[in-house]
Amino acid sequence: MTEKTRDRLPLTSELIAFECAARLGNVTRAARELQTSPSAVSRHIAGLERRLSVRLFERSSKGVQLTEPGRRYQEAVVAALNSLKVGGEEAAELSAGPSLVIACSHDASHLIIMPRYAALEKLLGPETRVRLLTFQRHLHELAPVQVADIVLGWQPLDATRKDRVVAIGEEIQPVCSPAYADAHRRTLQGPVSGWGRLKLLDVQRPNMGWATWQDWFAVAGHPDTAPQFEDHDTYTQILEAAAAGRGVALGWKYFIEGHLDRGVLVPLCGEYVRFGACYVATLTAKGRRNPLARKGLSFFEHLA
């Protein structure tokens, strides 16, 4: 790097002041967030504009507004600051020893990974720290998780990509508690056309690509009358509601194994119905730099 190039590199204090003022649209509020004075924030921004020879803001009595070059530069600054943050987290992780970070929904952590956690630890070695980043909502609905090495979620499989594997193919069948099955034995042993008398448990969140009750009815047949639905926020809650005898749930193979093994849920069909979605494990940019992430990917590849 030449001395002339270094002279054009902004100071970190200038970047932070610019990002904060751009995000808030006001120098005074930016100063309050940064716990400094408005004059200091203005001085940093002015120094950045001189260094770049670019006007980044239009000033007015109402605050500051980004110019078009300012908007372009804001995107670059946010990305750079995020990279520095992620780089610092990676450095801290490396100093603490080998680790693997997996990001997934709470449902996947509770129903898929934790029952198999001992096998994952054995594969990675006793010296490896495994961290599960869990979210109430599915990863599709979140910003990219940069600190993670592997991200799990429902999505179509792209066979051309070498950084992802299918953990689970989508196979489902209805399940309920033994008590609910006994109480509605005649209906459940009859055709699906009579299922309008049942209560069906469903997820109230927007669907992100997985099969629905309507998809299952399209294969198995439709009820003659509209069933009553009871909505829950997570799939784990749905399974607990089904185990408590509140109604019938769609059971995803491998997600419901523990409930079936304990006998708190029983299957209502002889076999699972296959659908097109896949539960996929994908390496992140950070994961592609972590040799342990490839081992973790092989664990999910052989999960089923």
**Principal-axes shape call:** elongated
Q: Give the biggest beta sheet.
A: 7 strands, mixed
Low-confidence parts = none
Q: Provide the structure class.
A: alpha/beta
Terminal Cα span:
51 Å
CATH architecture heading of the largest domain: 3-Layer(aba) Sandwich
Per DSSP, the total helix count is 13
Determine the CATH topology of the largest domain: D-Maltodextrin-Binding Protein, domain 2
Instruction: Give the strand tally.
Output: 11
**Roughly what percent helix?**
40-55%
The secondary-structure element order is HHHHEEHEHHEEEHHEHEHEHEEH
Give the amount of beta strand, in percent: 15-25%
Mean pLDDT: 87
Overall tally of domains:
2
CATH class of the largest domain: Alpha Beta
The radius of gyration computed from the alpha-carbon positions, rounded to a whole number of angstroms, is: 26 Å
How would you describe the overall organization of this protein?
Helix 2 (12-24) packs across helix 4 (38-52) and helix 2 packs across helix 5 (68-95). The radius of gyration is 26 Å and the shape is elongated. The protein starts with a helix and ends with a helix. The strands form three sheets. Strands 3, 4, 5, 6, 9, 10 and 11 form a seven-stranded mixed β-sheet that branches. A two-stranded antiparallel sheet has the order 1-2. The chain has a two-stranded parallel sheet with strand order 7-8. The protein is α/β, with parallel strands linked by helices and 304 residues long. The chain folds into two domains: 3-93, Winged helix-like DNA-binding domain superfamily/Winged helix DNA-binding domain (Arc Repressor Mutant, subunit A); 106-304, D-Maltodextrin-Binding Protein, domain 2 (3-Layer(aba) Sandwich), CATH 3.40.190.290. It contains 13 helices and eleven strands.
